[in-house]
Structure formats: C-alpha cells, structure tokens
C-alpha cells in the first residue's frame, strides 16, 4: 500500500511539472533593422552644415561617398574636390577626416575636420569638429545633414 501511495504521488508530481519550453523570441531584436554598410552610404549627397545648437544652415556642399574607404570627396561650391581619409565602419558610423585645406567659412584660414557620419531614416547625419589654424574659435562643433542628390 505504501508503495502504491509513493508511486501515485510521483505520477501526480510528474503530471503537474512544467515542461521545458524554448525561450520566447526577443521581439525588439526582430524589429531592429540591420546596421548600415558603406555600400548603403555610397552615392552623391547634398550636405548642409549647421553650428551645434543652431538651425541656420551656414554651408552647403556635395559629398561623394563610395562603397569602401577610398575615393570619398567633399566639394564646396566653386572649389575643387577635397579628398577625405575614411576609416572602415565602426558599428553604424563612418569616420572621415580632411585637411588641412582653406576653410569655406573663414577666407584664408586653414582648417582640418573630423567627421562622424551614419545613416538615419534615409539621411546621412553627422557631427563635425573643425580645427582652425587661427582665430578666436580654433575649435568649432558642427552638425551635418545630408540628402541623396538626384
């Protein structure tokens, strides 16, 4: 009798035990779009530059991006293209440096720039630090926003 009770309790416990179920899929991971690649950034972009904290466009230029780190240029109106030194992508961002070259904003002043750009909702968004060789503000933080040129 005692053996029958132990077996009955064991059967009841086994029937009530939860079965192992695979973990539920993370729905937020499924909704995250894949990170952009350099190929996604390739093309001609019309870039608008603003000072950090301002909505006023102070400069518009053309950015030519390639699917790899070579051949990137920026061209200011009425000027020759300026080569960019581009690093391989880090996460979702590209780092590009240029210069020294004559500033498009400060006539006769040399500048070199450090840009970090990424694709965001079909636009090329970025932050730029401009290092000027002389003047009151030798370091200026800028924002970039680019749309694909037709």
Structure notes:
It is a single chain. The protein is α+β, with helices and mostly antiparallel strands. Helix content is 16%, strand content 43%. It contains 3 helices and 9 strands; from the N terminus they run H-H-H-E-E-E-E-E-E-E-E-E. It has helices spanning 2-16, 27-31, 38-41, and strands at 43-51, 57-65, 73-75, 82-83, 85-86, 94-102, 110-120, 123-132, 139-148. Strands 4-3-2-1-9-8-7-6-5 form a 9-stranded antiparallel sheet. It is globular and about 65 Å long. 15% of the residues are buried.
Keywords:
alpha+beta; 9-stranded antiparallel beta sheet; 3 helices; 150 residues
Q: What strand order characterises the main sheet?
A: 4-3-2-1-9-8-7-6-5
Strand residue content: 35-45%
Number of helices: 3
Structural class: alpha+beta
Any idea what the radius of gyration is?
28 Å
Largest beta-sheet details: 9 strands, antiparallel
Question: How much helical structure, as a percent, in the residues?
Answer: 10-25%
- Note the gap between the termini: 88 Å
Mean pLDDT: 86
Series of H and E elements: HHHEEEEEEEEE
Shape: globular
Low-pLDDT segments, ≥5 res: none
Strand tally, please?
9
